[in-house]
Amino acid sequence: MKIVVTGTRGIPNVMGGVETHCEELFPRIVRRGFDVTLIRRKSYVGDGLKEWNGVKLVDVESPKKKSFEAIIHTFRAINEAKRLGADVLHVHAIGPALLVPYAKLLGMKVVFTHHGPDYDRDKWGTAAKTVLKLGERFGCMFADDVIVISDVIRNLIKRKYGRTKRVHLIYNGVSQPEACDYPEYFDELGIEKGRYILGMCRFVPEKNLHHLVEAYCKIKNEQLRNKNSADGVKLVLAGDTDFEDDYSRGLKEMARRNGVVLTGFVKGRKLHSLLTNCRCYCLPSSHEGLPIALLEAMSYGVKVIVSDIPANLEVGLDSRDYFHVGDVDALAAKLKGVVDRPLEHVDYDMRKYDWEKIADQVAGVYNGIAQ
């Protein structure tokens, strides 16, 4: 069976939750006997790869413009999928799902994965939010099968569109942790094992990293006043943005001004070492689907402090690990508690986030759509 994938910027080593999802999932789908071609946005990749871990890669031009790059790329990708003779087109995210009806008109079977209501993101204006809502509607109404990554999203599409048939709850996954040390990298960053708080995500408004910096500043100022044993704990922000804007520039300036360590986008050994040795991981966001970055942190057994939005609550952490979204004082208090206590390791139950199990479930959707 020939599967063609669109709705992602590309793989491998491209920043983003959907990108990480596709990077982990589709090599496993290939190993289950499927022919997979993933259509990449040419402006995000420069590696010249035609295949990666068995996944065929096709690069298609699209303008690198926040407002319409996804829709133009998806249109071109659907035409390419038709030319390639796709048995199934797999569309990721609600923006690209706007063109699900077009793919159906061309005679293709369509699977749509809903990664979250992106119209809730602060970066979009009214017109863009309207288009994204329409994309969600078209994807949920016209796709042959819909995959949702959380129960929150399943309930959302049931409530909004009445869709209950051929809707599959298949969680995001997480790979086995690769615990490691990288002393040279830590020397370069000026950090010590166990003595930093880690924030890891894209630099966009809905992630609320500015709240994390504000909370850190409260802790830092108290440390300076009291000279207590927690003195010297730093904040590390690992990530960047696709489109530099006022928010990302302001966040970086705010971070530098307050002694926050900025790593840029990291993968591989650098990322593994940061996850292995952090004191805690924090995700203060106001909007998520099911955050892979949070699952990654949990897989390393690190303490996590996250906002109490539905997607984060679905992970089922201890109530003490949540704070009310937007409450900087509460966040600072939670972080201070972690900083003041001895370093702890947490054994989370990660069984339902196993990529091998997830790949089996997605393969089952493909086999079902072909019958």
Q: What value does the Rg take, in angstroms? A: 21 Å
Q: Helix count, per DSSP?
A: 13
- Summed over residues and divided by their number, the pLDDT gives a mean of 93
Broad structural category: alpha/beta
Total beta-strand segments: 14
- Helicity, as a percent range: 40-55%
Could you walk me through the main structural features you see in this protein, from its secondary elements to its overall organization?
41% of the residues lie in helices and 17% in strands. By secondary structure, it is of the alpha/beta class. An 8-stranded mixed sheet has the order 3-4-2-1-5-6-7-8, with helices on both faces. Helix 4 links the parallel strand 6 and strand 7 (145-148). Helix 1 crosses helix 13. The longest helix is centred in the middle third of the chain and has 18 residues, at 209-226. The mean pLDDT is 93.
